[in-house]
Amino acid sequence: MLLQPTDYGKLQEEIKKLKEEKNAVILAHYYQRPEVQDIADFVGDSLDLARKATQVDADIILFCGVHFMGETAKILNPEKKVLLPEPKAGCAMADMATKEAVLRLKEKYPNAWVVSYVNTTAEVKTVSDVCCTSANAVRIIEKVPAEEIIFVPDKGLAYHVSKRVRDKKIIPFEGFCPDHYLFTVDMLETLKGKYPDAPVGVHPETPPEVQDRADFVGSTSQLLRWATSDDLKADRVIVITEIGLKYTLQKRRPDREYIFPTPDEGVGYLLCSQMKSITLEKVYETLKGEKNEITLPEEVMEKAYTPIRRMLDWSS
Asked: What average pLDDT does this structure show over 286-311?
């Protein structure tokens, strides 16, 4: 059954009651549906959510995001019950990198450190030296005590980092986000032609040629701050990332217009179907039955903890 807007309020109230009864906290990514964001105790990007996962005082963490995000929360909170409303919500980019492929690269570059984007599986994190997010990748790599960096798995973010950290050799893995990376220069030029007065901000998961034509390149949270800043003298802004961020932008600064890729603008949606697979009904049913618990082998959690903890320490 598809919920109608008039149904959201009642179901959200039921979820709030369940949270209190079960001492649960709900974390949600910016790419989630608006009604799911509204029920969350905290909404953020991957770095924000990783930090928050270490600070919550709850017995249950219900994570509205894709599978690697739930894994990260579990690794940081092995004693808590971590639930994922849609257990099949995955990340194609994370699945492009395997533990075996990373080990082969390590054999080829024995002096290199492995920096794995948080958008990786727990298995890949076990053979990584440090993790990063798109928000802190530059800072993390600047702190790595090695001249060679194997960057896994996103080649778009690897390009972004290589432009800003010139004294290290970045060895990119050939992974990418199927949503961000399919956004083309032609699509960008279509939007710029339609809105010539609007500055352009893009996510670093986009292709290099798109990044090179932008006024600003930054993570989801960085795009949020940039697009709503008083320093940005513009009535409207072109934002190239997943459409879910538009809801938060409009709430934070409703006096500004935010142009996202949509069919109405002459280009396709930048929409993550995996993120959108989580519905308010699934949140309710998962919390009510305490279903879809994230579990990982103890050895995997122990080995994956070190690079995640190092990332958080280096980001503070």
From this structure: 97
What was the pLDDT predicted at 282?
A: 97
Q: Which helix (H) or strand (E) holds 202?
A: strand 200-202
Residue 287: phi and psi, rounded to 5, are -70, -40
Global pTM value: 0.94
- CATH number for the domain spanning 66: value is 3.40.50.10800
Q: Do residues 142 and 281 both lie within one domain?
A: no
What is the separation of C-alpha 258 from the centre of its chain, rounded to a whole number of angstroms? 20
pLDDT tens-place string over residues 41-74: 999 998 889 889 889 889 999 999 999 999 999 9
Q: Clarify whether residues 74 and 140 are in a common domain.
A: no
Distance in angstroms (rounded) separating the CA atoms of residues 120 and 69: 9
Residues 160 and 194 in one domain: no
Closest CA to 87 of 67, 111, 117: 67
Give per-residue burial for 38-56: e unless 16+ CB within 10 Å, then b. bbbeebbbbbbbbbbbeeb
pLDDT, residue 9, reads 82
Q: Which domain range does residue 102 map to?
A: 93-176+301-315
